[in-house]
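Subject: for your reference before the review

Hello V.,

The reviewers asked for a structural picture of the protein, and I figured it would be easier to keep everything in one thread rather than splitting it across files. Below is the amino acid sequence we used in the manuscript, unchanged from the supplementary table.
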Amino acid sequence: MAVAFPAAAQEQVSPDKAVTERTPEGYEAKGITLGSFVLYPKVEAAEEYNDNIYKSNTNETDDYITKISPGLQLRSNWNRHFLQFEASSEFGIYADTSDNDYTDYNLRATGRADATEALKFNGDARLQHLHEDRGGDDVSTDAKEPVEYDKMTGVLGGTYKPNRFSVGLTGTVDDYNYDDNATIGGGTDNNDDRDRTETKGEVRFGYEIQTGYEAYIKSSVNERDYDSQVDDGGVNRDSNGYKVLAGIAIDLDRLIRADLAVGWMEQDYDDQTLDDVDGYSADARVRWNITELTTLRGSASRTINETTTSGASSTIGTAVGVGVDHELLRNLILNADAKYYNSDYQGITREDDKYTYSVGADYKLNRNLYTGVKLSHETRDSNAAINEYDQNVIMVKVGGQF
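And here is what came back from the structure prediction:
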């Protein structure tokens, strides 16, 4: 979703936070007080030019896309506990290729209950109606329109930290339901093969070495259960796996926050024709306040991801990203990002490298109005030339918040 609501407790300027997490005094959304809750309405409009909307390496098609994104957030204002409801949507309207028009929406409820100072519980329930642009890895090349799907997510967890030691438990369920879509030739693509439920359970043990440094170990198990016993190719894509990570969390408020972990992952498939996968795993996030006006961001990950590409059991995705935000003025923030993503398909000889670069600026006119601009370039290189493309996007947005 394009709408981004202000984070909780974000009203005060503080060098403890990243540049993009601060809101200068006089520019913060006040919201509408409703008893012990605050309602934050917001709407954003963006105009985008995309020179390759289908991410094709031949016969590139460009178009202008208008995006309208209204949203509401209702947030508790309690001293203890926390509860938040959110509803947002995005309407995408293409100037010349109306078959690509879409409507996404998001409904979400999150909460935290503080049983004691040491024991806290959290929950998250979410319903999303989303779309996949044509040109996606699992979208048929003859698709006439974007593939639409529903995703339901439920998360329940808790943490207990009576002293330097901590333990956390989290259970997550994601359910995917894909709609069939029309094809250019007049037929229909069957996307029921992609319907599935992914269940994951995670346990995390931590030890605070000293203030600001915590060593931890976390382990998770997962089950990926497809609704169809076999897909149209006669393959059963059900699987189960695990991941173990050891890492360190660093929280030096005015300087750096980081979470760095490495470990091992494995995914085993019920169908013998699909390759089992294992290898090292990684998950890293860094936020470094170089100065009070400049924040450097970094991330890296290595995961096993689902795919319905014929012959492939999955992809191993390796991602590395770096970004910088600079506060040129109190109400003007410049940003730049560079990202690399490698998709290594397991079971077939396909490997893709995707490079994304972007620069942008966000400008707050006052506490109710803001605007921004972003230029981005994306390139995908592949050992199969048909999967390669270049794409450039220019976006200008204006928004209102209350």
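For the response letter, the relevant points are probably these. Confidence is low (pLDDT under 50) at residues 9-15. Residues 118 and 368 are 38 Å apart (CA to CA).

Happy to draft the paragraph if you're swamped.

O.
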